[in-house]
Amino acid sequence: MAKLKMxxxxxxxxxxxxxxxxxxxxxxxILTATAKxxxxxxxxxxxxxxxxxxxxxxxxxITIGKGADGKSKVFFDIKGREIRKRTLxxxxxxxxxxxxxxxxxxxxxxxDFGVPLANxxxxxxxxxxxxxxxxQPGIPMDSLNNQLKDWLLVSRRAAIDIDNKELQIAIKGDAxxxxxxxxxxxDILQDQKINSFNLVTGMRDKNF
Length: 208
Known about the structure:
Radius of gyration: 25 Å
Structural class: alpha/beta
Strand order of the largest sheet: 3-2-4-5
Helix content: 25-40%
């Protein structure tokens, strides 16, 4: 009896369509991605297993760490463009510094900063890449010139006026920062009856 011969089929797969999809995805991510701007004050954050996500708006971040000169510095950031603009207006009126509409627009697009208000316009006029390289001395927070307290107070009022929300506060500190500097910030928060705030940390593997 004659044996039936099975017809062999090709095992190759046409990858043309898959390559097209891969290139389309790659093009999409390249066009929509934004480069991460280096931090003006890099800090080595303490580790934690907590995964609470901070909001993208109605948030003030106080960053404390040591600059290139080894001195402790405090930087400030506000999330929310309209709140940033309103805060800059309020700070200018409070301390007698005039900012143009162009200054306010640029400030709304900035990240954290660490200079006295009188020198802020110089930072605003810089390119983003130049700001990170600039030697910013930090925001004053001594007993005679406590501008950090003013920034907190004015930004909290701006958040209530614009979004009718209480501004959330987060502290982003270097793991090796000395306690007295952290205590100064916490004392400022206590003076404004801010008893709840977030601590920004780095992720740590739960198995360790």
